[in-house]
Fold each of these.
Amino acid sequence: MNIAYSEAGEGKPVVILAPPTATHVELAWDMVPFLHTLAQTFRVVWLDSRGCGLSDRKVPDFSMEAMVRDVEAVVSRMGDASFVLAAWGQAIPIAISYTTAHPDRVSHLILSDGFSSFSDFMQAAPYRALTALLEMNDLLLFTETTANVLWAHTNPAFARRFAELIRASVDLDAAKSVWKAMENWDATGLLSRVTAPTLVVSNKSSRLFTTAMAQRTAAGIPNARLVLLDDVTYASFPELAQEFVFGAEPRVGATDKLRSGMTAILFADIVDSTALTERLGDAAFRAKARDLDAALRTVIREHAGTAIEGKLLGDGVLAVFTSARQAIEAALACGRSGGDAGLPLHLGLHAGDVIREEGNVYGGAVNVAARISGLSATGEVLVSETVRSLARTSAGVTFEDRGEQALRGVGEVMRVWVVQQA
């Protein structure tokens, strides 16, 4: 039997075990944006479960022991170096079982949103509903419901993509077989034997894998650390993993988000906030603006950007990116979020050298991004010639020339362009 796996990046290995019914070594790199950021610091190894993704399909055995053997087969190709083992969802019992069987191989264990005992999982009402859908032989409804239970109320777009990932990862027979085999997946008796430093992560908004499940897992592992997130796409996972594995200071060669240098800068500002405040009332406007601010910061994290906390921006958000393409994609997504919230945005992008210190960014490039934002029409993304040049062949968009514009406080005129989605 063949097990598919992929590798990217250099450095300390991180072996990722995804939920068996939602793993696809090719599609995962598009579905899970944080993988690219993680690969800037670690050697990322993603493997597909037997019967799923690009691994051999139509296999009879989905026992936890068989799953552990597949992990053993993949990591045997990595030499003798120790590695970080990171598991999500239903893969957590597999990770715990492997870790206790091979304590010399796992240097750090990260367990995110799942259970250590199936009996914990079966008590959740969503599990019973999803099981009924599988028994009805309705894979489409099963995948859509799974994604909606997990994330639709916090991120509908991510939920739709996740449902598509499940359908690409598993067929109906395999999904039913895995679901049935999980009834015997129980690692609670192994928790006290875990010797690797362990981080247990729980999304507070998850309705399928509750914080109580994470608490029980963390309580059973000696000296485990429990972290609660409100981040369904795990955009903050690379930073969390780096801090856990290497300590507060990043390792030499790691991407340093606070360094100075060439940066793509996004400035987003609510259109005519004064008039909106008068129309909605101050309390209602502030409530909507806070919700939008949270949504924009989520979008920025999903696209590997960093929202600048230290800037006092009124009703605006400032973010920086190491990629012009990702900055454009984030700006377009921010525009959609503003429209959905009924608080349309001015959106401007520029790229240039900045100075970063103590959570702030400084420099003329920041001022240019703010001025370009002010020139944009409601909901449109306006970019400088610098950004267009950096991203014109990679962003999958076109650019409409708006000509040279005089920017307040900037000594020279600048050519700007409107982003048009292909």
Amino acid sequence: MLTTMELSGQLAQDVSSTDDSDVGLRAVAALRALNEQLERLQVDDARAMGWSWQEIATRLGVTKQTVHRKHRRRIGKP
């Protein structure tokens, strides 16, 4: 079983693959899914700690409306 660091290293290697577009594209998709999962976890934690939607949006580099629309149903309103 790969550790998180090994998996990250493998994804980084795969995403830059110029020999096999299938490998590269699959790596991009895996990174996209990982990014979404990490964002969900961090937004959940921030909201649990009392962060406002605006504070979260600022850190993510998006508008408050964007982050609220994306996460409000899953988290609910305080």
Amino acid sequence: MKSFWNHCKEEFKKRVNKNHYEIWFEPTSVVSLGDKSVTISVPSSYHADRINRDYLNIVVEIIKAVSKKDIEDVRFVVDNTKEVFLPPAENADANSKKVEMIKAPFTGLNPKYTFDNFVVGASNQFAHAASKSVAEGHVNYNPLFIYGGVGLGKTHLIQATGNFLAGNSKKRLLYVTSEAFVNDLITSLQHNEMNKFREKYRKLDVLFVDDVHFIAGKERSQEEFFHTFNTLFESHKQIILSSDKYPREIPKLEERLKSRFEWGLIADIQPPELETRIAILKQKAEENGISIPQDVAEFIANKVKSNVRELEGCLSRIIAVSSLKGREISIQLAEEAFKDIFKTREKIIGINDIQKAAAEYFNIKVSDLKSKKRERNIAFPRQVAMYLCKELTELSLEDIGKGFGGKDHSTVIHSQKKIENLLKENNEISMTIKQIKKTMEI
């Protein structure tokens, strides 16, 4: 049996990415082999999920070829955890380990999200470091609050934290979206099962809540989450949250929740800079067993600047077009595949347009905006221009900083925050912004 599985593994190596083979296939073994079914032992439920979801056809094909049997059913036994996804084969080896039908606790985590396949760049480096430190137990940030725009990797990062903990500890974990939390609450109220609801959420070691801003404005949900948060926090249990906004900027969120969300560490994720976008495309292509040329990766990365999900969507499109047309991925194919799509996405204005409009409004030179001058008559217009670049373009903080003479991304963040704060209390600034936009016909 061992010889048979080693032969299968050698074939898996030829068909699967090296890193993926080492993660998903190297730790496996075969429990039994029948005429129609095979039972494979895996170290965790995540291995079973991933192999079943992404590699089942390859597994069946190789086992059929090596065993010379007409295998129709692949079953997975999770070793050492007494958990099974499907019953072992009827003709399982009598000496194989006994497997009890005990279901593992539901975590809500997706095993595809790991730290290994999260591309780190300047835009997300701090959030990544904080998440990994929490996962490894090096620090005690509680709560860990990660915020950023849509499609930038918040979900990936918090689930990677959960998957790391699931694979390296026996903690009771639960990942939910705040929408799922709200729906769970509503169902519990309808069926008079609030004790069960509270038991579910307040007996955890780690609670992950994605898009926590969704509970804002929902009075009962905020009330219940407030007490859940307090119970976990006071019991020294870890809370990890994500949102599209900084806690103080979430509208209709109760003040007491805003305060608690700020108790720990707040880390932001910004749109990825060009180099990170290219790295993301290359890694996603590698995961699909595809080699994407550098010029194609640069072409797509220069067009899609603010959203990782869009990058992945573009990659899927070029792979599909390549397959359907029977042509290799090339810059020519990319230009054809995205001709109409990128044309509609082109921005009306760019950083040069904004700088020109701001310089004209404040009666200074564009070169002043890019200079190192710190006089107020230069610094303030520069802050306004940087704010407009962040609002009106999909440029990353790093790209905006480069456009202003190589300024650091932290300078852009400072400018953005300063203008945002002034807009809340100064109508004159609001009129200034509107006038500059008007000159650009926005």
